[in-house]
UniProtKB/TrEMBL annotation:
It is an enzyme of class 2 (transferase). GO terms for molecular function: phosphoribosylglycinamide formyltransferase activity. Its EC number is 2.1.2.2. NCBIfam families: PurN. HAMAP family: PurN. One of its GO terms (biological process) is 'de novo' IMP biosynthetic process. Gene3D superfamilies: Formyl transferase, N-terminal domain. It holds the Pfam family Formyl_trans_N. Pathway: Purine metabolism; IMP biosynthesis via de novo pathway; N(2)-formyl-N(1)-(5-phospho-D-ribosyl)glycinamide from N(1)-(5-phospho-D-ribosyl)glycinamide (10-formyl THF route): step 1/1. Residues 1-181 form the Formyl transferase N-terminal domain. It comes from Marine Group III euryarchaeote. GO terms for cellular component: cytoplasm. It comes from the Archaea. This is phosphoribosylglycinamide formyltransferase 1.
Length: 202
């Protein structure tokens, strides 16, 4: 299965995919293109180093619908069959999501449906929960509302701030996202009534 990735910044989750692929842990998954929406996205340098083609579409300069149209055109050009949002901090239009229904993965740093949105760690701390974590999920029209694929719980410690909590959760994101890619590429993810079922290995 041909995967395109979209990222906005640091790209450590994208790097986790590159590394998992290099270790042979993603049989059947090809990483064919990275799209970044910010000129300074560090993810682009990671693509360069890994020999993965990348493109920049300036999300500041164009409207969301136009951004998504250009991104879709690039995805079709490289014959992408699935998309991974690896720290891509923008919402996608329903047209984009429909074009890849149940073929767009996202990684989110909280146990969804708790704490969706861009401030998951801050929101988890403000709620006083004793554990948070991360979720790999399919993207639907809502903000972090799509069917959950995999989750990992991580403790919240009394002295945590958003940075320390993020740092504790991040290594688990780096395991969950490649695992979700592996399952999708292996045809092992079925969505029934909005719930993901992980099918047994063939
Ligand atoms: C991660 O915490 C991810 O869950 C969130 O944004 C962050 C991106 O980090 N959506 P990176 O760019 O993958 O390093």
């Amino acid at each position: 299965m041909r995967f395109a990735m979209m990222a906005s910044g640091r790209g450590s989750n994208f790097q986790a995919l590159i590394d998992a692929r290099a270790r042979g842990e993603l049989p059947g998954a090809e990483l064919v293109l990275l799209i970044v929406n910010r000129r300074d996205a560090q993810a682009a340098a990671r693509a360069e180093a890994a020999g993965i083609p990348w493109e920049f579409i300036d999300s500041e300069a164009i409207a969301r619908a136009e951004f998504d149209r250009r991104a879709l055109a690039l995805l079709h050009e490289c014959r992408a069959e699935a998309v991974v949002l690896a720290g891509f901090m923008r919402l996608l239009t329903p047209e984009f999501i429909e074009a890849f229904r149940h073929r767009i993965l996202n990684i989110h740093p909280a146990l969804l449906p708790l704490f969706p949105g861009a401030h998951a760690h801050r929101d988890a701390l403000a709620a006083g929960v004793v554990e948070s974590g991360c979720s790999a999920h399919f993207v639907d029209d809502g903000v972090d509302t799509g069917p959950v694929i995999l989750q990992q719980a991580v403790p919240v410690l009394p002295d945590d701030n958003a940075e320390t909590l993020a740092a504790r959760i991040l290594p688990y994101e780096h395991r969950l996202l490649p695992e979700a890619v592996r399952l999708l590429a292996a045809g092992r993810l079925a969505v029934e009534d909005g719930i993901v079922r992980i099918l047994p290995e063939k």
